[in-house]
Amino acid sequence: MSTVTTVGSFFPPVRCCAPPSTSPLSNGRLKLNHVSNTARRLAVSTEQAISSETTTERNETTMRNHVSNGRLKESEEGEGMKEKQKNPYALELEKTEMELRSSRKSLEDYFEDSKNFIAKSDGGGGGPPRWFSPLECGSRLDNSPLLLFLPGIDGIGLGLSKQHSTLGKIFDIWCLHIPVKDRTSFLGLVKLIERTVRSESYCFPNRPIYLAGESLGACLALAVAARNPDVDLVLVLANPATSFEKSQLQPLIPLLEVLPFQHQLTIPYMLSSMTGDSLRMAMDNAVKGFPLEQTIGGLSQDLVAMSSYLNALANILPTETLLWKLQMLKTASAYANSRLHAVKSQTLVLSSGRDQLLPSEEEGQRLYVALPKCEIRKFNDSGHFLFLEHDVDLANIIKGASCYRRGKYLDYISDYIPPTPPEFKKLYDSNRLFMLATSPVMLSYFQDGKIVRGLAGVPSEGPVLYVGYHMLMGFEVIPLISNFLLERNILIRGITHPMLYVKLKKEGMMPPLQQFDVVRTMGAVPASGSNFYKLMSSKAHALLYPGGMREAYHRKGEEYKLFWPEKSEFVRMASRFGAKIVPFGVVGEDDFGEVVFDYDDQMKIPFLRDYIKGLSEEFVSLRTGADGEVGQQDPHHVGIVPKFPGRFYYYFGKPIETEGRRQELRDREKAHELYLHVKSEVENCIAFLKEKRESDPYRNILARLAYQASHGFDAEVPTFEI
């Protein structure tokens, strides 16, 4: 059982303007209270907390590193890693589930921390509401935006305790603590938060302020946003209590008003019941006229089977406090709902599918429609206390939704934070079966002219532009990105279709944006001239498919055929920064599936034709000036018949230098000549792989499984002779 590891100073000294306890207006302007940067933290912590913080910072330095020359910087402990010749991402994959679980805080730890926090911070629950900054969030990126955490009904402010180590690397976190005995009204809390928001906005006018609220805290965030439309706010709302009128909690108010004091331990049981059946039964019995003592007695018997942390919850929420908070929830819900029309802030709603306290799934959809700049992320297997669940990583969710920015506008290059090794492991594990089924063979052109297995031949220093063939449905991207990161510690940043970032006006026409979060987490950017320019100028390793959607959703019988536009779109931009162009080919789609229902077939069916045209109207065309079918990239689905799995093969050809050729390639004819040369090299790479794979004895998945059964499933499966 851990001790208090998250408590920090109540006046965070790391910014020029700390949240004032009182901020009166003077001549129409807020009076600001400054705190010295050298002020010492008033920490309520233990030696274990300090040790834990130091270890966390050391193990996760990779996350704070930016990309240098297209490669992720090595951590300070790189010397030890060199002994194993592996980077942090490869080492992370070797961790066992037991090791991972030992580093996580349990729900019982949260309640234990809450008890200690209340005892040490306000002597048992007294004092006014105030902010504190967790010690675990003490080291972060430069110019990190402020994140204000607004707690739920408990009011403690430790609801993000499992998220501190990751959020604290990219945010300056302040948490609102509402003491147990405090009786500040909802509007009073709104004004307190509002003063802090306006004070910080005045100090840092070019940075956004994040309001992360759960349940009651989400209503507070919406209210503040509605009252301050001129402040740049980003709202992150977890299971917002704007649906309180439709929840099971509302009938608790009249019950609590007549509940005898000796039965107050029943209340935590009601709130923590994951099924809600007992609470519903209690309400039904009360309505049917059963004696109150009998109803409560039946519920109290079940306390024996509950885990020990319920007693802690009872201390946090005594009956009188719970009644006050429930009444506040009713007020908060009505206040926020009446002002939704005034909320113009960027909003991310997180909805749990198994929230038995609030109808969060339906409410999330309602807010998604009601708020103009709203996106939604659904967690079908999660309960009400979303931030306390092991599999929920708020930092990764915010990054995956493209909601993390440090300025007024999102910059996909400068605001991008690479995935941490644990984040990458989670993504890799979710695709492990696909990696096993495809068993990718990576080949590259080495300096001495030889073709080698692996990625030793690709350039180390950026800028590098990888140009190749886009296989059916883009299935080749997952192994490509993963192997570059694991083998070379190189993060490939894909240039993707803008539809992966656009909120559709018509629901259900495309997969939800949540399905593309992994693509954005791994560094993809929407295709545009400015983003291409920024990638090259930052010396990134970028991935470009000139054939785009036309290749990835090709017609029947068009496997491995390039559909590139006539104009040399990328050559002159690459030469401007002296980028190396690496042509590559990939084959294997015809061993996994065959297109049987393509675009041409669908356009012959009236309702499908209208569906496709409706989709096309939602998106901005990437190549409005392109001739022929290359410019007609109507989004659509294709019908595929799966095959018995074969294998994916990649060949990264000889890098083409553009350094020193900027003046030469300004000439359109010269640029077009190089463009055709790159296209020819991609076709040669594809032809090479198609020929060589015929001699691969392990092209069939059964042969590979037999090999791995005798050599271990982590063993590299051989391939054809090079």
TrEMBL record:
Keywords: Acyltransferase, Transferase. Belongs to the diacylglycerol acyltransferase family. InterPro entries: DAGAT, Hydrolase_4. This is Serine aminopeptidase S33 domain-containing protein. It holds the Pfam family Hydrolase_4. GO terms for biological process: triglyceride biosynthetic process. It comes from the Eukaryota. The keyword Lyase does not apply. CDD domains: LPLAT_MGAT-like (cd07987).
